[in-house]
Amino acid sequence: MNEIVDGPKPKHAQLREILRRLAEQELAPGSPIPSERDLAERYGVSRITVRAAVGQLVADGLLTRAKGRGTFTAKRRYDLQLFLASFTSDMKARGVEPSTEVISCGQAAPGSKASLGLESDEYAYRVVRLRKADGAPLALEAGWYSPHMLPELDRCDLTGSIYEIIATRYGIQLDHARQTVWAETADAETAKALDVRKGSPLLVFRRVASSDGRPCEDVTSWYRGDLYQVTMQLDRTVPGTGPNSAKGGTT
Length: 251
Description:
- The chain is α+β, with helices and mostly antiparallel strands.
- It has two domains: 11-73, Winged helix-like DNA-binding domain superfamily/Winged helix DNA-binding domain (Arc Repressor Mutant, subunit A, Orthogonal Bundle); 78-230, Chorismate lyase-like (Chorismate lyase).
- It has helices spanning 11-26, 36-43, 47-59, 87-93, 162-168, 188-194, and strands at 63-66, 70-73, 78-80, 98-108, 124-133, 136-145, 176-185, 201-211, 214-224, 228-230.
- The chain has a six-stranded antiparallel β-sheet. Strands 1-2 form a two-stranded antiparallel sheet.
- The longest helix is centred in the first third of the chain and has 16 residues, at 11-26.
- The chain is elongated and about 75 Å long.
């Protein structure tokens, strides 16, 4: 239905469905939608009705408002996969061309030595990179890497996948990682790197990855909150209460 009619269904709800189909099926991500005035005239409704319909779609994340510019369809969101894989391989699997800008690479004393199992006087490799997809900045990552497992890492070409380098150059297969996720707002430096406004929402991931129990990588990544979401599969199993768990647990 592309017309609004009198009936039991409120006009703002009818317009919302029209705009939903427009955003999901006809317009590309980031495209502008008609102005409030144009929508009101086209569908014969008040601007209050238009605001109600658009406001709900903004709340649903389907549309976004840009102050002084108008209302746009939301940009494509990437669904972050919670498994041990590189950004490069993940983007390629989605049909997106990844690229990486190395911001800095060198040797320094890590702030958290315990995660890499280093002595107090040992250095680690510090690598800061900007990750892009089809040329758009998507994530800023800052990682520490073990000098014992990855000697001369700073001499490698780090514009591609570090995980591929770890596997092919060093013969190491990362087999375990612990990852923590939280939310932050972008400070001025991060906002500039990611091409967002200061204070924009970010998803932050800290991953400590290892091989055969030996810590190799401690990396924190700041992902644009407007372009990423996390989907997890949940079930009713509680750790320690399954059929193979030890007896004596609570029920």
